[in-house]
Amino acid sequence: MVEAVVVIAITGIIAAMLAVFIRQPVQAYIDTTRRAGLSELADTALRRMSRDLQAALPNSVRVVTSGGTTYLEFIPMLGGARYRQFPTAGGTGDVLDFSTTDGAADLLGSVPVYAAGSSVVVFNLGPGSASDAYAGNNRAAVTSSNAVDGLVSSDAAPHALSFNAFRFPLPSPASRIHLVGTPVTYACTPNAVMPAAGTLRRIDGYAFATAQQTPPAGASNLLAGQVAECIFAYDPEVTRSRTGLVTLWLRLEDEGEAVRLVHQIHVVNAP
Question: Distance between CA 164 and CA 103 in Å, rounded?
C-alpha cells in the first residue's frame, strides 16, 4: 500500500511538471491556428471586395456610415464597348443619337456577353451630377442580348444594342458605353466588445436608388464574422479624377487573438 501511494505521488509530481512544460507549446499552437484562421478569413473577404471593386462602373463607388454600420456601394460592370458615333462612308449604320430619344445603336469592336434586363450607361459622372446612373438619368434598360463570347462587331456585320427608348444627357468623349447589373453593397457592422457578433455582409439583387440605402433591401450573404473593427474610405480624385482609391481596413478578433489587414484598390473613374 505504501509503495502504491508513493508511486501515485511521484506520478502526480511528474505529470504536474510535464504539464507546466507542455502547456505553453500547446497554447501557442492553438493561438497560431486561431490567428491563421482569422488571417485567411480576412484576406478572403478583402480579396473578394477588391475583385468586385476593380469591375465597378466609373464614379459609382460611394460610402456612408449609419447606425454603427458602414455601407460601401458600387455598380458592377458586365462589360464595355464603343457605340457608333458617325455613320459609315456609305451613310449606313445606327448612330447613337443624343439630340433626341433613341432606342438602339451599333456597337463597334468587341461586344461583351450580356442579357436583356441589364442596363446600359453612358458617361457616368457619379452621384449628384446630371449624368448619374443611380438616379437613372444616363441609364436605360437593355432589351437585346449577346450570348457569343468573343463576338466582334464591324461595318460589314454590325451588332445592334437595343434598349428602352431614352435620351442620354451627355455623349462619351471616347464613345464608350457600359453594360451594368444592379448595385452591390458591402455592409460592415463591427463589435469591439463582442467580436463574435460583428459581421461583414455582401448585399445584392436590389433596385437602383438616388440616395444610398442603409441597408438596401436585397439578398444578404455573410462574408466574414468576428469583425471587431472596419474602416472603408473612398478618395475619388487620386489622379485628377481619372482614378479613385478605395481603402479597406479590417480587424478580426477571436478569443483574444486579433489580425488586422489593409487593402487599397484603384478604381477607374474615367467614364
Answer: 6
pLDDT in tens, 193-237: 999 999 999 999 999 999 999 999 999 999 999 999 999 999 987
| Residue 32 backbone phi and psi in degrees, to 5 | -65, -40
Average pLDDT over residues 30-37: 68
Assigned C-alpha cell, 97:
443619337
Distance of CA 50 to the CA centre of its chain: 6
Q: Dig out the grid coordinates for 38 from the structure.
A: 482569422
**Residue ranges per structural domain of the chain:** 37-74+183-268, 77-180
The arithmetic mean of pLDDT across residues 3-15, rounded, is: 62
pLDDT tens-digit map of 70-103: 999 999 999 999 999 999 988 899 999 999 999 9
Question: 464613345: which residue's cell?
Answer: 175
d(CA 248, CA 82): 32
CA-based torsion, 108, 113, 116, 117: positive or negative = negative
All cell numbers assigned to 122: 453612358
Cβ neighbours of 235 (radius 10 Å): 12
pLDDT at 29: 47
Query: In sequence order, which residues have a C-beta less than 8 Å from that of residue 231 and are 6 or more positions away?
Result: 70, 247, 248, 249
Task: Name 114's bridge partners.
Answer: 146
Contact 202, 223 (CB under 8 A): yes
Separation of alpha carbons 231 and 8, rounded Å:
57
User: Which pTM value belongs to this model?
Assistant: 0.87
